[in-house]
Amino acid sequence: MAAAAICSLFIINKSGGLIYYKDYGSAGRMDTNDSLRVASLWHSMHAISQQLSPTVGCSGIELLEADSFDLHCFQSLTGTKFFVVCEPGMPHMDALLKVIYELYTDYVLKNPFYEMEMPIRCELFDVNLSQAVQKDRGAFLGR
Amino acid sequence: MPAAAPRSGDAIFASVEHVNAELFTLTYGAIVRQLLTDLEEVDEVNKQLDQMGYNIGIRLIDEFLAKANVSRCVDFKETAETIAKVGFKMFLGVTASVTNWDADGTCCSIVLEDNPLVDFVELPDTCQGLYYCNVLSGVIRGALEMVSMKTEITWTRDVLRGDDAYELQVKLLKLVPEEYPYKDDE
């Protein structure tokens, strides 16, 4: 079975609440409570990293490299965080996060029935997100 | 990886799907007329238009940030210039200018020569207190609030009220950065 491009995707609102979680692999699959917990932990760690950083104007952790996974995080200027857990050394994750941000601005924010800061339940977002991840996975496997 | 360069308002405006300008003007006009019928008081309508604009602005800001590739503005001057040159261009297809900076750099005017919302519009005598384009002040206020700036936005010139241009006074009230409450004693 072909390796997934990413293992999981989390979207956190500006208060640290998990508004979207999707996992793409059988390893590291989490239930709802665990995913909520992980999201708040990451939100706190991200905020703390800004305080700890010796650089002025640091905007928080962008990349966490571990033995068995990489975690790429993108925070928009509005405070929403998008982070993916993927296999170590996966290229172009930043570009994928940017694509996911654009999908969020289109299919979530432009949906008038979506309530700001609430969990995302937008089918169009799910569909387009799967396509984007598949495309990225295809590009990776094609190399 | 180097950050992508910010895109110009023109480039973004050209790359998005366009809608018929008349439809846009008619739709906005229908909204204002309906609000006047439902609420009757011109002040209430002004407030509702501002509120609608606010609700648009809080969502529009992410769209703007995603498409325009702008990095965090270093000061309020840069913010105002970005709104005028990139924001207005990208969403309304018009270029605005920034003038009248105060000594602190917290208050300025954004001047619009052209305004697609008001094509073909004339205010009748019964609606003299109406700020027809008040949705715009709400949009800017909502958008800036989502990037940690609390602002107060008022119209200082309005062509529908007899002036020669549209001028919005944008006043930065305070910066409200998202603080992580790690100090228990606060």
UniProtKB/TrEMBL annotation, chain A:
Identify the domain of life. Answer: Eukaryota
UniProt key word Transmembrane: no
Gene Ontology CC: one annotated term: Golgi apparatus
Q: Where does it live in the cell?
A: Endoplasmic reticulum; Golgi apparatus, cis-Golgi network; Golgi apparatus
Name the keywords, alphabetized: Endoplasmic reticulum, ER-Golgi transport, Golgi apparatus, Transport
Predominant location category: endoplasmic reticulum
User: Which GO terms are recorded in the biological process aspect for this UniProt protein?
Assistant: endoplasmic reticulum to Golgi vesicle-mediated transport
Q: Which residues form a coiled coil?
A: none
**Residues passing through the membrane, by range:** none
In the record, the note on similarity to other proteins reads: Belongs to the TRAPP small subunits family. TRAPPC4 subfamily.
The UniProt entry, under PANTHER family, shows: TRAFFICKING PROTEIN PARTICLE COMPLEX SUBUNIT (PTHR23249), TRAFFICKING PROTEIN PARTICLE COMPLEX SUBUNIT 4 (PTHR23249:SF15)
Q: How does it assemble?
A: Part of the multisubunit transport protein particle (TRAPP) complex.
What is this protein called in UniProt? Trafficking protein particle complex subunit
Q: Which organism is it from?
A: Punica granatum
Automatic annotation (TrEMBL), chain B:
| Subunit structure as annotated in this protein's UniProt entry | Homodimer.
Chief place where the protein resides: endoplasmic reticulum
SUPFAM superfamilies hit by this protein: Ligand-binding domain in the NO signalling and Golgi transport
Which lineage is the organism of this entry classified under, starting from the top rank?
A: Eukaryota, Viridiplantae, Streptophyta, Embryophyta, Tracheophyta
GO terms for CC? endoplasmic reticulum; Golgi apparatus; TRAPP complex
Q: Can you cite a GO biological process for this protein?
A: Golgi vesicle transport
Q: Which Pfam families match?
A: TRAPP (PF04051)
The record's keywords, sorted A to Z, are:
Endoplasmic reticulum, ER-Golgi transport, Golgi apparatus, Transport
Where on the tree of life does the source sit, at the highest rank?
Eukaryota
Protein's cellular compartments: Endoplasmic reticulum; Golgi apparatus, cis-Golgi network
Q: What is this protein called?
A: Trafficking protein particle complex subunit
- Source species, please? Punica granatum (Pomegranate)
Family affiliation: Belongs to the TRAPP small subunits family. BET3 subfamily.
Give yes or no: UniProt keyword Transit peptide.
Answer: no
Record's InterPro entries?
Answer: Bet3, NO_sig/Golgi_transp_ligand-bd, TRAPP_component
Record's function text: May play a role in vesicular transport from endoplasmic reticulum to Golgi.
